[in-house]
Design brief:
single chain; 342 residues; mainly alpha; two-stranded antiparallel sheet; 1% strand; binds zinc ion
Length: 342
């Protein structure tokens, strides 16, 4: 412990130390006051910081980008939870991996949904519906996203209504499915455009009109070709939801979630690898009528798996009636469209 004498002795040995201390303190204070690094951020008004945070949030590549921002200081942590920031969070910013799923992650998505973020509504809606078995709240969140012109959400609801997912087979509603698919198609969703084409071809949920159906199928193929040839650099405004070039993160989440237990309880996954949907009751999905070895949640998935997934090379009876597609349960009155070859 330093005694008073030793302090006095030190002062006597260096009489100017006390004066220097004052000078140093004053200098530091002056530095603090004049330092632009320390004061510039504090002087910024909240609305300006929120504006910057919102822009960062809308361009974030992953949820960790948002977390990193909130960890910088207390003020950023508080402002990072602001509704304006959460509402603008990008699709990637709310796309949590299944292995990272936790109660805080769930709460984060709920906060984003409450703020009006349609990507979060769709993402959490799909998780609740397919992974957590919360059909009502999951469908409600998807509907909220669809009302906000989220094309993938509208198409997912269409698949739910076509299949009667979450209910008995009798709850299938092709008409409602067609209306939702048409809404998603108008928003540029390629799978939805293809689904609408099949509906017009065979009159499933829509008046039969083969010429109109073919136009939709050609339109879907053309968009895929253009998206594939243009690369990720260009961004035609009408290709909004092309899953071939930009896979939907929620499909990956569902696949990860079920993992090796995908076929447990006799409930099967959609055979299209990029889909991830799982049956909500036995025999919900339809099987390939030619080989009977693969199952699809929708004709759009069948078409993708036929061309992109290579099923056209592995299907045992390619030469058979490629337009036949029978449901597992033998409900031939509700047969969906073609075999996917266009
Ligand atoms: Zn599927
Ligand atoms: Zn097959």
């Amino acid at each position: 412990m330093e005694t008073r004498r030793s302090k006095r002795g030190r002062r006597e040995a260096n009489p100017s130390s006390e004066e220097e201390e004052h000078v140093d303190t004053d200098t530091c204070r002056k530095k603090k006051i004049s330092s632009p690094k320390l004061d510039f951020f504090d002087a910024l008004p909240d609305d300006l910081v929120l504006s910057v945070l919102s822009n960062l949030s809308s361009a974030a590549d992953s949820p960790s980008d948002l977390i990193a921002i909130s960890l910088t200081c207390k003020r950023m942590k508080e402002l990072g939870r602001n509704e304006a920031v959460l509402k603008k969070a990008s699709r990637k910013a709310v796309s949590i991996r299944a292995e990272k799923w936790s109660e805080p992650a769930h709460r984060f998505l709920i906060s984003c949904c409450d703020a009006g973020n349609i990507h979060a509504c769709y993402f959490l809606g799909m998780i609740r519906f397919y992974c957590l078995g919360l059909r009502g709240s999951g469908a409600a969140l998807m509907a909220r996203a669809a009302l906000g012109s989220h094309a993938a959400a509208a198409f997912s609801l269409a698949v739910v209504r076509f299949n009667g997912s979450g209910g008995p087979a009798a709850s299938r509603n092709p008409r409602a499915g067609f209306v939702l698919a048409a809404r998603a198609a108008l928003l540029g969703h390629v799978d939805a455009i293809r689904e609408v084409g099949h509906c017009f071809l065979d009159g499933h949920g829509a008046p039969a009109c083969s010429s109109l159906g073919r136009r939709f199928l050609v339109n879907a193929s053309a968009r895929e070709l253009l998206a594939g040839s243009s690369g990720s650099g260009s961004d035609p405004t009408w290709i909004l939801e092309d899953r071939a070039s930009d896979p939907d993160p929620v499909n990956g989440f569902i696949r990860e979630w079920f993992g090796s237990a995908s076929d447990a309880d006799g409930l099967r996954m959609c055979s299209n690898g990029g889909c991830g949907r799982r049956e909500t009751r036995k025999h919900e999905f339809r099987r390939c009528a030619a080989c009977g070895r693969v199952n699809y949640c929708s004709r759009a998935c069948q078409a993708r798996h036929w061309s992109d997934g290579g099923h056209k090379d592995t299907c045992r009876e390619v030469e058979a009636d490629v337009d036949a597609w029978a449901p597992d349960g033998g409900d031939v009155g509700d047969v969906d469209g073609s075999h996917g070859g266009e």
